[in-house]
């Protein structure tokens, strides 16, 4: 039975790499996939991984209709054995419904990849719809780590290293960007406390915070806390 699978995780946990691996393994066996993405950091019509691999993809912009596009492709004699959709958090709920229809009516596997929550730990509408409709939600096994060594479960947006909690939901960017606006993955505890690597480092170095209250010691950067 074809499936709609949502591969989900924080930023930088290997989602795009897995998408490229699925594509590689299937095309090596003679299958032909259709790859879609939206607002990849590498630019329009690209699916890129931080490991350096990149492939061409169809840009699924606002208003793009996955079902109509694939029906048009197939009815012109084109081939499609499976579908990959990266950066699926940016898709509209209606577009996720179209992907579910691709599975049910065109009988194609659809593999969607995306982050579940935004920098305020609120669901992206596209990810919410994927959780509602997917046959399976798979959490990626390679764990991105918070600066404290715990598994990172949340995405923080930073401005000059400081975490912010207000702003537009969508701002394309990267981790370790060094830019004005960047992202950092954190465990829930440090996301709740708005404690990034930079603020934790600054707190550890500041003479103002000495002597250290016992309850704050656990927030100090260590190899593993
Ligand atoms: N220089 C490197 N050497 C080995 N692995 C790396 C390197 N740079 C990035 N990675 C791996 O790539 C992962 C990010 O992959 P990517 O597919 O771009 O993530 P996502 O799409 O989830 O944001 C990192 O978690 C890490 O495991
Ligand atoms: C948390 C968060 C992220 N984004 C953007 C930043 C990146 O361009 C993508 C995630 O890409 P990745 O391949 O998973 O690293 O999403 C955003 O727009 N808003 C956010 O809140």
UniProtKB/TrEMBL annotation:
Subcellular location: Cytoplasm
Keyword Chloroplast applies: no
A GO molecular-function annotation: thymidine kinase activity
Gene that this polypeptide is encoded by: tdk
Positions with a binding annotation for ATP: 9-16, 86-89
Active-site residues, as the UniProt record annotates them: 87 (proton acceptor)
Protein EC: 2.7.1.21
Family: Belongs to the thymidine kinase family.
Assembly: Homotetramer.
Protein name listed in UniProt: Thymidine kinase
Alphabetized UniProt keyword annotations: ATP-binding, Cytoplasm, DNA synthesis, Kinase, Nucleotide-binding, Transferase
Catalytic activity: thymidine + ATP = dTMP + ADP + H(+)
InterPro entries: P-loop_NTPase, Thymidine_kinase
SUPFAM superfamilies, A to Z: Glucocorticoid receptor-like (DNA-binding domain), P-loop containing nucleoside triphosphate hydrolases
This protein's record includes keyword Amino-acid biosynthesis: no
Organism: Streptomyces lavendulocolor
Pfam families for this protein: TK (PF00265)
């Amino acid at each position: 039975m074809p499936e709609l699978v949502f591969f989900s995780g924080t930023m930088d946990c290997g989602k795009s790499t897995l998408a490229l691996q699925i594509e590689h393994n299937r095309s090596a066996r003679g299958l032909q996939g259709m790859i879609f993405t939206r607002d990849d950091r590498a630019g329009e019509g690209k699916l890129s991984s931080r490991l350096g691999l990149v492939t061409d993809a169809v840009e699924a912009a606002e208003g793009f209709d996955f079902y109509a596009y694939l029906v048009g492709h197939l009815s012109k004699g084109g081939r499609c054995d499976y579908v990959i959709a990266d950066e699926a958090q940016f898709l509209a709920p209606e577009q996720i419904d179209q992907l579910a229809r691709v599975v049910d009516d065109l009988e194609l596997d659809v593999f969607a990849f995306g982050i579940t929550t935004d920098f305020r730990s609120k669901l992206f509408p596209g990810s919410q719809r994927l959780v509602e409709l997917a046959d399976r939600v798979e959490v990626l096994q390679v764990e991105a780590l918070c600066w404290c060594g715990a598994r990172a479960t949340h995405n923080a947006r930073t401005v000059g290293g400081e975490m912010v909690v207000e702003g537009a939901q969508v701002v394309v960017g990267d981790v370790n960007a060094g830019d004005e606006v960047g992202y950092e993955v954190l465990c829930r505890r440090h996301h709740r406390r708005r404690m990034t690597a930079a603020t934790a480092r600054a707190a550890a170095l500041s003479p103002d915070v000495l002597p250290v209250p016992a309850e704050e010691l656990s927030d100090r950067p260590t190899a593993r806390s």
